[in-house]
Amino acid sequence: MKRLVVLGGGESGVGTAILGQKKGYEVFVSDFGAIKQHYKDVLTQYTIPWEDNQHTEALILNADVVMKSPGIPDKAPIVKKLVEKGIPVISEIEFAYPYTDAITIGITGSNGKTTTTMLTYHLLKEGGLNVGLGGNIGKSFAWQVAEENYDCYVLELSSFQLDGIVHYKPHIAIITNISPDHLDRYEYKYENYIASKFRITMNQTEDDYLIYDNDDEAISQWLQNNKINAKPIPFSVTKVLKNGAYLNDKTMEININQEEFMMETAQISLEGKHNLKNAMAATSVAQLMRIRKQTIRESLSNFQGVEHRLEKVLKIQNVQYINDSKATNVNATYFALESMTTPTVWIVGGVDKGNDYTELMALVHEKVKAIICLGVENKKIIDAFGNVVDMMVEVDNMRDAVNTAKHIAEKGDTVLLSPACASFDLFENYEDRGRQFKDAVRNL
């Protein structure tokens, strides 16, 4: 019997453990931190042995294969020891992939991947397909492969998940865009991070498709220097494309395999240029999956958006409060600021992942009247924007941030939480940060 060791007792870890057990592996789950009670109960119910707050080497280094949760860096001591011993360390996606015949649609990118994943799932589901949603969101892919029977999956894939693949290939891959993020995990080398994203297409054949942003510099450069096997389907908001998706004045046009689709951009529920690109990518998938055009149109006009991504919370005394907690890097915040149409009180800060704030300068100049720093270490933000805005305040909790914003904001302004940073100094994760923001706004 082969031994599967799962590092990390979260959603992907527990899902992998269940699938592994079902496929006849001897399974052990080990988490260096605490495993949540809910997951402990599930593991106990399946009689899968586990440990937390430690890694017992004797129980780990005898594995035939190890599934590492995406949150664990390659430089973790236990991972280094496994690699030294030549034990394969893979991601949940790689482990689960051989056990399903379903078509998978893999979506990656620095920003927009959750919105594009949710929108693609929405289009396919509304189109009547038997479709699952997983990867970085929702229920773990492995868990669904173990217990469900979907014909296709829409998977949001982070670069960390792609780092752990060997044979996995999506039938349709999407790269929404690439901008510097998580460089702390890539030796601070942007090219390593870019290469990591392009692993999504490395096993694809000419029967598969790669949908990508044709306006993106990093993507275009990589494609010039590297060969792909998949059929390319580009999208652009700046140029007309013979094959792919583009903007023709106020109409989104898509030409794929001699099939044409057109829709007025005003009828698409998501706002902003970046969301038009997300819509182009998702619609390209729907076209390839033969969803009826009328269904695509209806679905694009009734899609509700994603929580914590430019989510309108409340309007109080004619001040609009917007939760963009999911903006964990500078590029995401760029899109948020770009879409602001009123003077903005900007709540920013958290754990900096090697951010360069210079690209925000012009937008901050033009749109931001005050900055509220919400983080343990705000020096970089203060240095960058101290001379650009009239007012800068430091706070150390969400309630103070929202109350301060209320005092500064005037009628017609917007209060925007768009941190451009990770959340781990003051919050559990970006969802916790977003929920605390919404609670504080509702309590004003």
From TrEMBL:
<protein>
    <recommendedName>
        <fullName>UDP-N-acetylmuramoylalanine--D-glutamate ligase</fullName>
        <ecNumber>6.3.2.9</ecNumber>
    </recommendedName>
</protein>
<dbReference type="GO" id="GO:0071555">
    <property type="term" value="P:cell wall organization"/>
</dbReference>
<dbReference type="GO" id="GO:0051301">
    <property type="term" value="P:cell division"/>
</dbReference>
<dbReference type="Pfam" id="PF08245">
    <property type="entry name" value="Mur_ligase_M"/>
</dbReference>
<feature type="domain" description="Mur ligase C-terminal">
    <location>
        <begin position="308"/>
        <end position="421"/>
    </location>
</feature>
<dbReference type="GO" id="GO:0009252">
    <property type="term" value="P:peptidoglycan biosynthetic process"/>
</dbReference>
<dbReference type="Pfam" id="PF21377">
    <property type="entry name" value="MurD_N"/>
</dbReference>
<comment type="function">
    <text>Cell wall formation. Catalyzes the addition of glutamate to the nucleotide precursor UDP-N-acetylmuramoyl-L-alanine (UMA).</text>
</comment>
<dbReference type="InterPro" id="IPR004101">
    <property type="entry name" value="Mur_ligase_C"/>
</dbReference>
<keyword id="KW-0547">Nucleotide-binding</keyword>
<dbReference type="InterPro" id="IPR036615">
    <property type="entry name" value="Mur_ligase_C_dom_sf"/>
</dbReference>
<dbReference type="GO" id="GO:0008764">
    <property type="term" value="F:UDP-N-acetylmuramoylalanine-D-glutamate ligase activity"/>
</dbReference>
<dbReference type="Pfam" id="PF02875">
    <property type="entry name" value="Mur_ligase_C"/>
</dbReference>
<comment type="similarity">
    <text>Belongs to the MurCDEF family.</text>
</comment>
<comment type="pathway">
    <text>Cell wall biogenesis; peptidoglycan biosynthesis.</text>
</comment>
<dbReference type="InterPro" id="IPR005762">
    <property type="entry name" value="MurD"/>
</dbReference>
<keyword id="KW-0132">Cell division</keyword>
<keyword id="KW-0573">Peptidoglycan synthesis</keyword>
<keyword id="KW-0067">ATP-binding</keyword>
<dbReference type="InterPro" id="IPR013221">
    <property type="entry name" value="Mur_ligase_cen"/>
</dbReference>
<dbReference type="InterPro" id="IPR036565">
    <property type="entry name" value="Mur-like_cat_sf"/>
</dbReference>
<feature type="binding site">
    <location>
        <begin position="109"/>
        <end position="115"/>
    </location>
    <ligand>
        <name>ATP</name>
    </ligand>
</feature>
<keyword id="KW-0133">Cell shape</keyword>
<keyword id="KW-0436">Ligase</keyword>
<dbReference type="GO" id="GO:0005524">
    <property type="term" value="F:ATP binding"/>
</dbReference>
<dbReference type="GO" id="GO:0008360">
    <property type="term" value="P:regulation of cell shape"/>
</dbReference>
<keyword id="KW-0131">Cell cycle</keyword>
<feature type="domain" description="Mur ligase central">
    <location>
        <begin position="107"/>
        <end position="285"/>
    </location>
</feature>
<dbReference type="GO" id="GO:0005737">
    <property type="term" value="C:cytoplasm"/>
</dbReference>
<keyword id="KW-0963">Cytoplasm</keyword>
<keyword id="KW-0961">Cell wall biogenesis/degradation</keyword>
